[in-house]
Amino acid sequence: MPVFNKYHYEHLCAEDAVRLIVLDPATSEEDPLSCSIIQCRRSEHIVDYSAISYAWGDRVFSRNLEIRCDGDTSYVRITHNVETLLRRLRAFDLPHYLWIDAICLNQADENEKAQQIPVMGRVFGEAKVVHIWLGPEDGTTANLFAFFQEARLLPEVEKSEMAQRVANLMREIFGGPDGQRALVALVNFSERPWFSRRWIIQEACLARKATVHCGTYSIPLPSLVLTATRFQTLDMSSYPIKVMANLYTPETKLTILELLWNFHEARCLERKDRIAALFGLVRDGHRFHLDYASHWTELYKQVVTGILALGPFLFQKIMPIHLGSLTGQTLDDEIYLITHP
Questions:
Q1: What is the 3-state secondary structure (H, E, C) of 236-289?
Q2: Which residues are in the Heterokaryon incompatibility domain (predicted)?
Q3: Nearest Cα residue to 189 out of 134, 229, 147
Q4: Which residues contact 269 (CB under 8 A, 6 or more apart)?
């Protein structure tokens, strides 16, 4: 097995520059992964690319991705999940231009991340398609995706009638008299890590076109959203199901407080990402000056300052409900942390 040097990231050439990987085609999913890395300026719209929305999972970088550049070959370390999704998404005939944060962001450069992370909404919004990777398939995936395909074709009827039709469809596809198999499969599906990620909200909502992949199965995101909406007629949906049903389009942008409340259960590793992961969807974003390089307490102060600009009465009215969603702590804890960095 050849020995390569670790890939060296060049600094981005401009403020609006992004890296893309050019993933080499393969005739078999087992063929070795290889790619090149290029830089493009978003303002020039030279390359049509796809963006990948996924959950990192275990951060064990146990795989190598071969990088070709100017006649030299090097590598970057990637996780098993990233390796799997790249194998699944690469084409058989042509190179595939992709944006994926694990490779296209220099994860060791905090300054670059501070510059790039606040514009992630644009990166996903300008992609020709967003590929949503949920992970490998399991024993229920075939029936689930058949249910998704059929549920979207149901005619619009009253809620009670829709609930009955959804229940009948679940029994028809999964078998069993009470639809319990379907319910268990749907709950397990909705508990896949992607649905609880905070960043997926803007990644999905800002996409021009999005496709959901689970192993070898795929479905357009709008079909999944419609299915989740119809499943809610059964009055037994979980938080992830509600997230699925509320992956709206940019035309329905909300205020930062509304977003914090609607998606307060969505998780992230960095406290500042409680804000940054939603900011691409904010209707009143012009009121805020967010410096992602600052400490998370400073970032929260910037948010509160912008909220106060809406007027003290509105702030007092909604603060007890929304502010606690920043970290999941009590209101008193939040006020102390924001005012005592």
A1: CCCHHHHHHHCCCCHHHCECHHHHHHHCCCCECCCCCHHHHCCHHHECCHHHCC
A2: 49-203
A3: 134
A4: none
DSSP 8-state code for residue 10: P
CB distance 134 to 89 below 8 Å: no
Which string of DSSP letters, residue by residue, matches 90-157? Answer: --SSS-EEEE-HHHHS-TT-HHHHHHHGGGHHHHHHTSSEEEEE-----TTHHHHHHHHHHHTTSPP-
> 98, 102, 80: which is closest to 89 by C-alpha?
98
Tokens at 273, concatenated: 């990402």
**pTM value > 0.90:** no
Cβ within 8 Å of residue 164, ≥6 positions away: none
* DSSP codes, 54-99: ----S----EEEEEEETTEEEEEEE-HHHHHHHHHH--SSS-EEEE
Containing 300, the helix (H) or strand (E) segment is: helix 296-308
CB 63 within 8 A of CB 79: yes
* Helical axes 312-322 vs 296-308, angle rounded to 10°: 140
pLDDT in tens, 201-225: 888 888 899 999 999 999 999 888 8
Enter the DSSP assignment of 11: P
CA angle 236, 241, 242 (to 5 degrees): 90
Q: 63 with 121: CB under 8 angstroms?
A: no
Which is nearest to 229 in space by CA: 215, 210, 248, 212?
248
Do the Cβ atoms of 124 and 53 come closer than 8 Å?
Answer: yes
